[in-house]
Amino acid sequence: MTLGLLLPTLILLLLLSGPAVAFLHELGHAGAGRLLGGGPVQVFVGSYGDAAGSFKLPLGPHSRLYIFRNPLQWSRGLCQFREALHGYRAILMLLAGPLLPWGCAVGLVWVVFHTATNDLVRLWSVALVVGAGVSLLVNLLNDPKPLPTAGGSVTYNDGAQLRLMWYYRLLPRAYMLAVAEYQSGNFAAAAPALMPYLTARSYQENTIRMVVSALIQLDDYAQARQVLDQYRSCCSPITHDLVNEGLIRAHFGELAAALACFEQALELDPTNSYAFNNRGYTRNRAGQYAEAVPDFRRALELNPGFAYSHANLGLALLMLGETDEGLGHIRYSLRLDDANSYAYRNLGIYHLQRGELDQARQQFDRAWELNPATDLLADYRGQLQAHLDKQVSNQ
Length: 395
Fold this sequence. Notes:
This protein is 67% helix and 6% strand.
């Protein structure tokens, strides 16, 4: 191979090795977790839990592999176990992720250099070792930046989780189990189990964040606000904290304060799709539809499979008279996630404003079946009932 072709070929092979490394990384977590008693697992390659935007493949009884449709995102991933792991089992599971692709790559190089004569095959094996080695270092370094999941909670890279697990090994077993419940998405169990530890100074910040996040996932905004107000002075705010505070304030109709929270969050992290989406949603609430549209478009640039942003953008466009594009985004949101109650609610709003009361009722009822706590859904159902009552009285 000529020198002129060597460098671009090596770069291309490094890029192609990325998806292979990411796939092996998540399988390392999944395999170790199953062997260590984690039970059925959901493996996400290319996303932090976005099942709607992924291809679904079986991984044995009750286990699934989700591969994100956009291959440019395959450097990220997530494993969720039905049975939460803790202690040394969790540490071993976390280590298995970055170590498996590196071990496989080293073994492949040994085999290739002892059996293959093709320079391209040898070069690819070297590229795979380099990619796996870089991935190993990046994943084992402690990165305290929270990674928002599709479910609305946060996770951290392997290094940060290992640091926490090593620290947690000396903490009460009940606390470790509560953290494991939170990390596995069982917020109904995690929130009450974590509450007694809100005053424990040595790990207070993480506990406060987990409790507030879990309560928001449970639609218990009143208690989330109470915890946030009581312990605000104990935390140095990060992007995730400000987004959560904005969600709470928006829920209680404090729209100006909510917008200020999202502005601060974006100052800390200008690439946070959740902050853009929620700022746009709050602007929708305030009737600022023209200002909301750029927020949703930016959120979708950062996260093209963000079903809620498609639904929210669709509503803003409908309110601005862009009917075809607006309906297109809402319908695409339902293709990504057919259990998105906000998309059905937004379709109901569209039909309600057009006076199509039967269609509006169908959409509102579907949204209610999925999630009665959907923001403002009860108000819109009340408006619909008032129109129906007026229709009856005029007959």
